[in-house]
Design goal:
The structure holds two protein chains of two kinds. Chain A has strands at 4-7, 10-13, 19-25, 32-38, 44-51, 57-58, 67-73, 76-81, 90-100, 106-111, 115-119. Chain A is mainly beta. In chain A, the strands form two sheets. In chain A, strands 2, 4, 5, 6, 9, 10 and 11 form a seven-stranded mixed sheet that branches. In chain A, strands 1-3-8-7 form a four-stranded antiparallel sheet, with no helix packed on it. In chain A, strand 7 and strand 8 (76-81) form a beta hairpin. Chain A is globular and about 50 Å long. Chain B is 0% helix and 53% strand. Chain B is an all-beta fold. Chain B is built from no helices and eleven strands. Classes of the chains: A mainly beta, B mainly beta. The A-B interface holds A 4, 6, 32, 34, 41-44, 46, 49, 91, 93, 95, 97, 99, 104, 107-114, 116 and B 32, 34, 36, 41-46, 49, 89, 93, 96-97, 99-100, 102-105, 107.
Chain lengths: 120, 112
């Protein structure tokens, strides 16, 4: 089946530093990837939609200068948390949409395993 | 309009019993309703999904029931097992290139 990977799986950093998280679709090309944030015992909150070759679309309330997204290829999207602070500590999850079938009529969204970020 | 409601928030079921999770939506433009299973520290995994043109879909022990007129859908887990203990999210989306709207989740515990 389709696989989406994330790297790193966990990261600890000091306050003020920047952290880059990679999201890769391993066996399919994804023109669209999504980045989510999840706090303990809560649902996934969509942060932004990452579009290959164009600017990301951010959800209301998400600082685009804080969370930089780059989707430079059809298999890779990156999320950079700039000047990270303790309140940015969270579980970050990406997903990628795979299209199949006639005229790409079937679509399935696959999720990565997540990246645990702890900012000290 | 974009919200997906889900209940119960948590559920405890005896091994072998039926787990039932209910969801409701408002936006009639939604045309794809997936269910995701998430274990602690892992990303969510697609469990089963349904489109509004069918009222029920079954895959193994998992069944989705869909009521288009009531804008409700539910997940039934038959013969629940301890390994089913996880958080379940219902979700909804519309047409290609759109985002998935998640429900708040249900924490399921299946006790021996």
């Amino acid at each position: 089946g389709a696989v989406v990977s994330q790297h790193p799986s966990w990261v600890i950093c000091k306050s003020g530093t920047s952290v880059k998280i990679e999201c890769r679709s391993l066996d399919f090309q994804a023109t669209t990837m999504f980045w989510y944030r999840q706090f303990p015992k809560q649902s996934l909150m969509l942060m932004a939609t990452s579009n290959e070759g164009s600017k990301a679309t951010y959800e209301q309330g998400v600082e685009k200068d804080k969370f930089l997204i780059n989707h430079a290829s059809l298999t890779l999207s990156t999320l950079t948390v700039t000047s990270a602070h303790p309140e940015d500590s969270s579980f970050y999850i990406c997903s990628a949409t795979r299209y199949s079938g006639r005229a790409r009529s079937q679509e399935t969204q696959y999720f990565g395993p997540g990246t645990r970020l702890l900012v000290l | 309009q974009q919200q997906v409601k889900q209940s119960p928030q948590s559920l405890i079921v005896q091994k072998g019993g039926i787990s039932i999770i209910n969801c409701a939506y408002e936006n009639t433009a939604f045309d794809y309703f997936p269910w995701y299973q998430q274990f602690p520290g892992k990303g969510p995994a697609l469990l089963i999904a349904i489109r509004p043109d069918v009222s029920e879909k079954k895959e193994g022990r998992f069944t989705i029931s869909f009521n288009k007129s009531a804008k409700q859908f539910s997940l039934h887990i038959m013969d629940s097992q301890p390994g089913d203990s996880a958080t379940y999210f219902c979700a909804a989306k519309r047409t290609s290139y759109d985002k998935v709207i998640f429900g708040p989740g249900t924490s399921l515990s299946v006790i021996p």
